[in-house]
Amino acid sequence: MIGSDSAIAEQWLRKGELVAIPTETVYGLAANAFLEEAVSKIYAVKGRPSFNPLIIHTNSIQKLESWGIELSATALQLARKFWPGPLTLVVPKSSQIPDMVTAGHPSVAIRIPAHPLALALLERLDFPLAAPSANLSGSVSPTTAKHVDEQLGNKIPYILDGGECKVGLESTIISCVHENPRLLRLGGLSIHEIEAELGFRPEFNILNNENPMAPGMLSRHYAPSSKLVIGNAADYLNIFDSEQLVCIRFSEWVAEIPKERQLVLSPNGNLDEAAAALYATIRKADAMKPELIIAEKFPEMGLGLTINDRLRRAQIQ
Ligand code: TXA
Ligand code: MG
Question: Which of 50, 181, 260, 303 is most buried when burial is the number of CB atoms within 10 A of its CB?
Fold first, then answer.
């Protein structure tokens, strides 16, 4: 069922059931993080590998502390500046957090999301919500309740509908486990903003197949069912007819392809707007069942960095 009543969501969560929740980044598939049985349903419903740890969500730093989670000075600085918001911090785990949430890791990923309905729900709860993106493992993250319903509607009792996600890309993940903070995943909070706050750029430790500490970063992820490449449409016109292609473009249409086969993310050239539209547009491109989706490479700045990261992972290898 889809609805917008946080009290109904609360009831299902208390019973150990899964509820999809809106956040400003993407929709999450939430369970009471303190109930191992509920958390195990997340892995089952998503088809998620058991070695891939989950992010826990709450609405206050105080609650985190009451669950034994301590934030270092750097973690606190980032939390105070960017929460609620699209930033996840990896910090040492406390014994109250079940091992199943962290997939056995000694650290835990935490976030306060910036979505009024999510915050209204979290405020009612005396437990954190473990929530990965509410899609089947490996596929594109949902940015509307309808996206969730299409993939998971018959597997979960309730989808809390909070409209379209404003940021549209998963949170940026920073590990604060070691003395120096490390960037584990590019995301909806631009790395330039983090750099401005810290006064230095955190070490990049972006995870991939060779370094799958954050296995959401396995190379093939965020993938549509049609093949996707990053490149220029013109380079493929000797292999395909233009009717077999769909182009995902930043701000401008190209002359070689019919306009109706080009999906432009932000005619004004705004990277934040492009980010918010990206996943819905990949789904739309996929639904046109092309032989190939050709995505333009985005400017390597701000959220353009995250968009390119996601496109690379969605690409055929
Ligand atoms: O924006 C988001 O972060 C969304 C919303 C729902 O909050 N959630 C999300 O969750 O993207 P998920 O599970 O799709 O991605 C979480 C990432 C995974 O790559 C996971 O491996 C990493 O966080 N992660 C979780 N716990 C970790 C830990 N202790 N150490 C390192 N990486 C961790
Ligand atoms: Mg995900």
Answer: 303
